[in-house]
């Protein structure tokens, strides 16, 4: 079928699913009516009642907004997929996406979405990156990023424009060392080899860098010499660890840790507080934007100094402790025991004595409090939630609503699950009174949001 005979739809029609699209396998031409963009031919891959997915086949008419990509890996890498769109247009597209998702999936007729907060740094903003090892056909280890859409193919990194220069320098040094000293790269399909991932966390706010090598076994040739080479690169390299992961799960996570240099942790500074983090801990990967994100969450919480704040999914206590400085008390809940340990350390480090932390999965802790099975159940005035991309379990929404806190502040990294959960809260007596998008990841499709909900009954 010729292109001019194919159905012409808007990108937004993907959110309408079966109401607008043909069955999977059909081809359409998408014309983005709301914002100047490419006219593309795409193949429908999935159609559901209220949404659909499509795969790009080719660009029919390039947009006048299209600009040359800066990254030499743009045709291989699945990361910075929006870099051929000027940054102001990226921001406009992301803000519109949040509005559309809240309307289509959240059922909010007129979403109260504020202007998106863009990143001052469009490049070099990322303070943590994960790189993968993979053997080439001759067995020589390659170290880089995954080829777009492939879990078992890696291209060797030349540069990365969203990471710091020191991060790239560490990767290039490790590439040379691994090839020269016979490191055996792990293969995720065959499950053989040793070295799996390299994680670099370079926190410019404190000038500290941590390097973590993830391996399937503690048998990495000349690993101490590799550490000495990295430490000699820059005084910022504060700690280096070896994380052991002998499971088949292809994740840059270690079940056991051996500290090779330093003390195994780095420090971040946010809104006047200092936070120590170990290898497996979560920290926002754009430090400057994280400060703006957390400041917006605290503003939405509207703390006067008299409130009790409950923070679910608190990690190492970042938002809990920031809230504790502005409230009467704060309670953080986290399922990872090591994170809870560091949250308590961070409270001591910052001289904060009005915060406490509970270890356990949020759904279980809330249930135990409701049944009187866990002591010191709070009566929060404000509930903060910062869940992973999957969002909140329906029972967590129900338990939070049962607390009847006047305000809930939701920090989200996934507009789709945010919309779903706001709709669920809406059925349980809460109204969404404001949503502010934040761009922590320029040139990528990822969007963070801060949403405020007020109890209306």
From the structure above, extract its key features.
Rossmann fold; seven-stranded mixed beta sheet; alpha/beta; globular; OB fold (Dihydrolipoamide Acetyltransferase, E2P); Ribosomal Protein L25, Chain P
* Mean pLDDT rating: 90
The main sheet comes to: 7 strands, mixed
CATH fold assignment of the largest domain: Rossmann fold
The CATH superfamily of the largest domain bears the name Vaccinia Virus protein VP39
Shape: globular
User: Helices and strands: which structural class?
Assistant: alpha/beta
> What is the CA-CA span between the terminal residues?
56 Å
Q: DSSP helix count?
A: 9
User: How many domains is the backbone divided into?
Assistant: 3
- Shape-level CATH architecture of the largest domain: 3-Layer(aba) Sandwich
Helix content: 10-25%
Order of helices and strands: EEEEHEEEHEEHEEEEHEHEHEHEHEHEE
Cα-based radius of gyration, to the nearest Å? 23 Å
Multimeric organization:
single chain
Proportion in β-strands: 25-35%
CATH class designation of the largest domain:
Alpha Beta
Strands across the major sheet, in which order?
Answer: 7-6-5-8-9-10-11
Low-confidence stretches: none
Describe the structure.
This protein has three domains: 66 residues, Ribosomal Protein L25, Chain P; 187 residues, Rossmann fold (3-Layer(aba) Sandwich), CATH 3.40.50; 143 residues, OB fold (Dihydrolipoamide Acetyltransferase, E2P) (Beta Barrel), CATH 2.40.50. Helices cover 25% and strands 28% of the residues. The strands form four sheets. Strands 7-6-5-8-9-10-11 form a seven-stranded mixed β-sheet, covered by helices on one side. The N and C termini lie far apart (56 Å). The model has no long low-confidence stretch (mean pLDDT 90).
């Amino acid at each position: 079928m010729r292109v001019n005979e194919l159905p012409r739809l808007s990108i937004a029609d993907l959110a309408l699913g079966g109401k607008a699209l043909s069955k999977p396998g059909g081809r359409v031409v998408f014309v983005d009516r709301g914002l100047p963009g490419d006219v593309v031919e795409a193949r429908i891959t999935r159609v559901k009642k209220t949404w659909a997915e499509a795969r790009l086949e080719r660009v029919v008419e390039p947009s006048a907004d299209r600009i040359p990509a800066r990254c030499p890996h743009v045709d291989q890498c699945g990361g910075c997929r929006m870099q051929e769109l000027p940054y102001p247009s990226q921001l406009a597209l992301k803000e519109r996406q949040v509005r559309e998702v809240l309307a289509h999936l959240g059922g909010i007729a007129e979403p109260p979405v504020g202007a998106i907060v863009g990143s001052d740094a469009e490049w070099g903003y990322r303070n943590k990156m994960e790189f993968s090892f993979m053997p080439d056909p001759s067995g020589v280890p390659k170290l880089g990023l995954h080829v777009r859409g492939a879990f078992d193919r890696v291209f060797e990194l030349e540069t990365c424009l969203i990471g710091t220069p020191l991060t790239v320098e560490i990767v290039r040094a490790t590439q040379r060392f691994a090839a020269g000293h016979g490191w055996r790269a792990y293969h995720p399909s065959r499950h053989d080899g040793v070295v799996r991932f390299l994680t670099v966390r370079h926190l410019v706010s404190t000038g500290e860098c941590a390097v973590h090598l993830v391996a399937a076994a503690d048998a990495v040739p000349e690993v101490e010499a590799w550490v000495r080479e990295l430490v000699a690169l820059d005084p910022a390299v504060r700690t280096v660890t070896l994380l052991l992961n002998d499971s088949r799960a292809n994740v840059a996570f270690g079940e056991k840790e051996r500290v090779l240099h330093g003390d195994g942790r780095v420090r971040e500074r946010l809104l006047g507080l200092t936070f120590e983090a170990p290898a497996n801990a979560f920290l926002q990967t754009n430090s400057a934007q994280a400060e703006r994100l957390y400041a917006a969450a605290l503003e939405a919480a509207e703390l006067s100094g008299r409130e009790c704040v409950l923070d679910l999914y608190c990690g190492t206590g970042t938002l809990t402790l920031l809230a504790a400085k502005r409230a009467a008390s704060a309670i953080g809940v986290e399922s990872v025991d090591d994170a809870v340990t560091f949250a308590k350390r961070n409270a001591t480090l910052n001289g904060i004595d009005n915060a406490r932390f509970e270890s356990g999965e949020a759904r279980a802790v809330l249930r135990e409090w409701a049944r009187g099975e866990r002591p010191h159940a709070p009566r929060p005035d404000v509930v903060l939630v910062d869940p992973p991309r999957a969002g909140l379990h329906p029972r967590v929404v129900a338990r939070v609503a049962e607390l009847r806190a006047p305000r809930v502040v939701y920090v989200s990294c996934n507009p789709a699950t945010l919309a779903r959960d706001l709709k669920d809260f809406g059925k349980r007596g809460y109204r969404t009174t404001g949503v502010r998008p934040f761009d922590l990841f320029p040139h990528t499709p990822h969007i963070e949001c801060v949403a405020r909900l007020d109890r209306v009954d």
